[in-house]
From TrEMBL:
Pfam families: BPL_LplA_LipB (PF03099), HTH_11 (PF08279)
An annotated Gene Ontology molecular function: biotin--[biotin carboxyl-carrier protein] ligase activity
Keywords of this entry: Ligase
Keyword Transmembrane: no
Biological processes per GO annotation: protein lipoylation
One Gene Ontology cellular component: cytoplasm
Domain of life where this protein originates: Bacteria
All copies of domain BPL/LPL catalytic, residue ranges: 84-244
Protein name according to UniProt: BirA bifunctional protein [includes: biotin operon repressor and biotin--[acetyl-CoA-carboxylase] synthetase
Stored CDD domains: BPL, HTH_ARSR
Organism this protein belongs to: Clostridioides difficile (Peptoclostridium difficile)
Amino acid sequence: MRDKIIEIILNNKSEFISGEELSKQLGVSRAAIWKHMKALKEEGYNIESVNKKGYRLAENPTDLLSPQNIYYKLDTEFIGKNIEHLDTIDSTNEHAKRIAINSVDGTVILSEHQDMGKGRLGRRWDSKPHEGIWMSIILKPDMEPFKAPFITLIAGASVTKALNNLGANTLIKWPNDVILNGKKICGILTELSAEIERTNYVVLGIGINVKIMDFEQEIADKATSLYKEGYMLSRVDIVRNVLD
């Protein structure tokens, strides 16, 4: 229901839409509409309500990584058709592996924070709350396990293309990093469950530093973020472009 409400008010742009009109379109009571609007405000949507006018989105929540925001104008065949958004998790990759067998192909896991984010060779990935994109994608390709590394290469190219389309001049550092001005801005970690000639699933983990301004001393000369390099990009736009 909330997905439909967000879609309607996003399509309505800055125009008010009455609670009565929403209740007619969605087939629910005005009281139910009010409850959903209240819940959406608590989630971070800046929804303006005016007596005898109705509701409108006061500003586009470009940094709120809710499924509703990402679904809006997402043009993809199957990746991202199912999105799970979490406040915090141990690791999006670990969570994805726990649910992969029962999840549909292309399921996306997003978390605002990771307690145990990791990169290649088990290295810790600094996943500060609301300051990056910490995402895993569950894939179920019909491919032999030895071909799985190609998914990492494709993902690196996809992230680079997405960021470049949004104005950030990024480059791929093979096999699994994306760099900006000579420093790492994104890491990719691919993990799989497979048998001898069959891939059960692949978990593609992508971490993008968006807003982080201060890095730990041991990586301060190697890592950077979009904001630190002067690119104030929307996290929602980045996710949409990567998934597309």
